[in-house]
Each structure stands twice: as structure tokens, then as C-alpha cells.
Please model this.
Amino acid sequence: MQAFTLFSSVFFRGDEEGVVFYNTDTYISKTFKPTATIKDACRILGDMDNLYSLPVDEDNKRFCEELNDLGFGIIHDAEELVASFPPTLVIRKDWEQIKSTKGQAKAEVLQYLSEITLFLGGRPDVKDSFCQQTEYPYPGNALMDFSQLSVFLDKASRVPKVILKFIFPYIEGYPEITKIIDRIKSLKNTKKVFVRDQDYYGNSEARRILQSVEKHVVVLNDSRRLYFEDISDLVENRFLIFDKSGALASEECVNKRALSNFSFVPIFDGTNEQFIKDVTFPTEQEILGGTYTKRHLFSHQVINSFVFGHLFVTPEGRVYSDLREKAIGTIQDSLHRLIIAELDNNYSWRRARNTKAGCQQCRYLDLCPSISPLEKIMGTQCIMI
Model:
């Protein structure tokens, strides 16, 4: 009697329309129609006790042979010991175990932190869809207290790998702008200073103030009204794209000014859903044609790769892991305490795709990218529809 054993490099998942197999060693995928025979075979393979093996019989022989020919597994004598471990048995760390050591493992927990976005001023409530899509500055009367900011930056400096993002509502009028710029210059962390195009290109005084940190400046250019003659390659230019005409205008601007340090960022404004889907969300063919390692698929099952490690600080000093959720603390809290608060509440970092009801039974669950802030803002149920 023969048996078939699936290699441990192969992930599979099915729904009512198909079953997808994906080999993380060869980056090859195959989708099968979910016949009764294939459903039964997958049920047996999915039983942990069977260690990715099933007996070959007349019903499933053709299916097993096809998997064998694809290099997804091997047909062998049933008495021959062929060991294969389902991927879910070899995940290296469990989040509950990590959380259980939170009191002792401060150094380990701090490594999770990768990015801090500081809104230095603007509206008291910056929970706007633009803020969640890009580091967009909003003018307003609320300003972050400089002494609190300085203490917080001292704490952040002890995590040298973290990226610090400073969002200015406006430059020239900020009371302690010189102190803040000097503080930014002294930081060893990777840092970026975000300003709007009219604040930089339309304000000579602002450009003078920022000159000493120019290599860290990111200018957000609204493609609906570009400053063609002033755009400079001395800073990083991000073009906010809302439609095809904006994309064409931005491309023209890039070519005209011979820019090398730039990027295009599609922005949802409530009226351009189809444009955003066309330029941002992957197609079925793109998802199946991706190159995913086993490590990638493991991490994808437990964390949200778009937002993991990110924190946001609003002008009044509240700290968020997701601006759409509740605050996890304040600027006075330790970074360790803030990280633990996010791990305990799971507002953002571990919101993997299997936490979204519409995705839980989908055959592309393991392969689709993590839930993006843009997808949440748009209320998209499925990124391939």
C-alpha cells in the first residue's frame, strides 16, 4: 500500500471555491477545485496527528500524483517512514508566551518597537483618514509641550533602531522650533521631518529653518496643486495621488525636475475607491505569483506587517498604536509599558488577517498581505473584489 506525504514547506488552505497549495521552497502555487475527494484528502492532511500524510487510494490517487509531480510531496511505501511536520507545529514563538514574560524581558519587548510618529501640533484630535494614510500635518492651536517631548525623546534614543517621525503643523510659527530642530539633529535614531508642500516650497523662512536637517525632510506634495517650479531634490518628495490625472501630473513633475528621491502615495478621499483598488490592491494572479518564504508566512499569521512596532503620539501627549482605537497610554509612560499595553489590548500590531471575519475561511488567507490602514479606512471586505 502507498501513502502520500506533503512536504513541510507547503502551505494549503481551501474554501468553497478552491483549495490553494503553495510551496515556500519553490514559490509555486496550484489551485484545485474542491471536490469531495480533495476535501477529504485535505481534511486528513490537516489532522496534526497524521503529520502531513494520507493513504493513497483509488479516489485520491490522481490528486496525490499531481501533488507529487509538482514537487509538493512524495508518494512512498506506506511502511516507509517519511517524516514531515505541518508548518503550524513549528512556529517558533507563541504570543501568549511572549506576553507571560513581559515583566522580565524588557530588552526583548523593546525590540518590537520600530517606528514612532509624533504629531508636534495641529488639531487636538488628529484621528483623520489622511493621518492614517500618510504623515499628514494639520494646522491648529494644539502644540506638544517641548519639555515633555524632550523627555520622551530621551527614552526613544535608548532604542537606536527606531525611526522617529516628526510631523509639523506649520514651521515658521512654532514657538520653540529652533530647540526642536536642534534636538532632532542630536538624535542618533533614524529620523524624518514631515511638512506640507506649501509650508516648505511656499515659505522661504521655513526652508531656512529646516536647512540644517534637510536630508531628513519629507515634503508631502498634493498632486492636485503641485509647485512645479520649486520642487527640490534636496529633500524626499512624496506625491499624494488621488486620481489618474494627479499621477500623470506627478510623473511630469518628476521628469521635469529630474527628481531621484521621491515616491507616489495613493490617497483615498471618499470618492476614488475604484482608482485606489486599481493601483493599490493585488489581483489574484499577483497574490499567487508572489515569492513567500516559510518565515514570511509564519509571521504573517500572527502579526500585521503594515503596522507592527508603530506608535503614534498626538499633540496633547496621548499615545496610540492605531489612531482609530483607544489610547494605550501617554507620553509620560515608559516605552516598555506602552508596548505591553498594545500587546495586552491588541488594537493593532497582532491584527492579522485571520482576525477579520470575511477573511477567516478564504483560501488566500495565508497569502494575502496584512490588513492595511487604507483597507480599514475604505471598509473593504475583500481586497480582490
User: Anything to note?
Assistant: The longest helix spans residues 244-257. The longest strand covers residues 190-196. The chain has two domains: 2-89, 97-271+308-351.
